[in-house]
Amino acid sequence: MQTTHNHMHNYTKNDYQFMHRALELAKQGNPSPNPYVGCVIAKNSRILVTGYHNKHGEMHAEIAAINNAMKRLNKKELFGSTFYLTMEPCTHYGKTPPCIDKVIAAKPRKVIIASLDQNPITNGKGFAALKKAGIKVKLGLLDKEADELNRVFNKYITTQLPYVFLKSAMSQNRIIAWGNRCANQITGDEARNFSHHMRNKCDAILVGINTVLNDDPQLTCRLHIDKKRDPKRIILDSRLRIPLSAKVLADNNVIIFCKNGYDADKYKQLSEKGVEIIVLQKESIDLLEVLAVLGEKNISSVLIEGGATVYKNALHARIVDEMILLVAPFTVAEENALAVFDEQQFHFKLQEMHATKFGNDLLVTGKVKYN
Question: Helix and strand tally (H, E) in the chain?
Fold first, then answer.
């Protein structure tokens, strides 16, 4: 069911403030492939308790908030309160029971929801159940911010295809250092640290075999933080040229895509190591097919990290949703380098662009719109 967003609600300054807080809380989780959700419960213009969805399989935001309340307040304190939820409560059994019953049992006077759950099994049902229970419900407060926060989940849950980020370091003239193979050295430490944050948030990280042969990267998330995750490492290697000593094969958190005509001995050796190999039947590796396979494996986001061939193929296949460009403050001589991001050649435009300074580098992000 679709319910129309009603922006005619007259929200108060507190409403905005508390929903902003709920969104900030939501960002603290790392719940992929679940959505980011935050909850603030307020009464008489002050916040009683908060909660957020921390990790896949753990308590949802509203349950975390209600449980916090039970530890500190008596149950009746929640009666007549207002719940601020960045997404409507779920109505189905997943890893956890549906949240809607607990929310209704807390007897709030009002529930303010930023956005509907795009998951077809919930979409609009949480909203409807609250209304049916006689609770006043408002929808659409800061919905743009909530939808932006869950752009990965929203794409994945409605298409079964992962959201694709393409990340590249480049010089000012859009060259990724290529001739002298120093791609990793283009940008400074702060930009590199950001890259590891991206890896922590994405379900998978994808590279082509040339990146493995040239740079022998680890492709792990090297952050010293709690809630750290290592994304699945996806390698496109049509003929299975990957050396068994490659750092990416340090553990089994790897999927290699190859095509017919691969090296059979290598296939056997990799399989014995426990590496998952998927053989694609087409002439060349079809990136849309790769995405569909990853989607079936519950991978909701992919970070493409290199190299030039994969970048080009991804843009030609029109699978990139968003670009993250780390631009260093210098230009590179053309003859030994590769210019990749030519909007004319690949027929795309970057929209909703943001630029942030990282030391001497510039981080530019934008959503890819294909012409």
Answer: 12, 16
